[in-house]
Amino acid sequence: MVASLFVDSLRFIPDNAGLLLHKAAGLAVLAFTALGIALLIALPLGLWLGHRHRGLFFALGTSSIGRAMPSIALIGVFIALLGVGFWNTAVALVILAVPPILTNAYVAVDGVDRDVVEAARGMGLTERQILAQVELPLGLPLVLTGIRIAAVFVIATATLAGIAGQPGGLGDIIVNPATYGESGVLAAAFCVAAIALLTAFVLSLAQRAVSRRLAPRA
Amino acid sequence: MSGVRTASGPVIPNFGQGTACLRHNHWFCPSWVQQHWSDTLQPALIQHIYLVLITVSIGFAISFALALVAFRFRWLGPPLGAFSDFVYCLPSIALFTILVPITGITVTTIVIPLIAYSLFVLYPNILAGLRGLPPEVLESARGMGLTRLQTFRRVELPLAVPAIMAGVRVATVASIAIATIAADLIHYGLGAPIFDALDQPDIFRTELLAAGALAILLALTADVLLALLQRALTPWSRVS
To answer: Disulfide check for B146: which of A130, A177, B150, B163 has CB 3.0–4.6 Å away?
Structure first.
């Protein structure tokens, strides 16, 4: 039974490629919009707090509350507050994506060797230059890890928008086994996993490229 | 908009006799929470704790076994890691939906995906904890004449406790949050009142907030308790 379900779902993908692509595009637009906004908020804030070595409690507190937050309850609160809509779901996803990015950016910059920062200051770099040219490059692997965690989380959670009544993504298929069958649900889940893994893969390539550029040349 | 709703009377079934607070669907009506604590919220909370205890204990046992295998046979590490990455990327709601026809409307259906997700956090942490020891420590253990098994039990395992406990904390908190989603299909745990509230025509805000807040409080409490357990398990880390 499990095996035939698996085979059926693999057949579902080519048979319904158009539908899946359309729904995947909807999911990707929602998830990447939310991720982009979260980056704009969390990255500067986390980097700046880390640079000032301030707000440890704030940075770690947001991350533990963010992890504890039941995503469906948060999406529900925003729908109760603002009604169903693309941006309302996006706002809930932004709130879920901010904590991992913020915490990792903070920890990355906070953990940079203080002697290196002092040396840069001694060479006459301004605070902004220190952050951009010393602390950010050194902390980048950890910053990118935070973005990767947030990306996978947001993509997987964006499917819940289907339950909460915001149509247009792969979640529509996943919450509707009556229409698409178990095989359709599994096929859509594979597509979500594929988008998440692809995003994670691209980010890890970026991470590798960056660390190669930073490695001392022989 | 709210004026129109009040005039026509919103459809709010089965809340008992409606106070003004409930009729206007305010964000938080303490009287409702007080009345329905023992018949709705408390049972859901106990069910939720039960789900998480099963998940984390079975998940821990499996991850520990997998980590031991990968620790002993190093080449198994990357494929096991890739598999757990893949499982983590599958949306939980899809796993619950697919399992319903196989394992039915049961606690098992909720717990299987939760265990799968907990592996993703627990397994790499346990393995990193076991592998992260400095070679000098192992060298001195050997120099003191400890056998391989003694080294594992008295040196490697205790020193891995902080990394292992960090994984257990994250896995517990994440399970508490993900378990709410299962209630869309199986009316069980703190997700049940959340989905009941979402299914009301206008979203029953008090129930949504009360159950959501309980889930967050449960997660934070579990995190603090596990942090205390970690301190108790590693008495040497306090000496400094």
So the answer is: B150
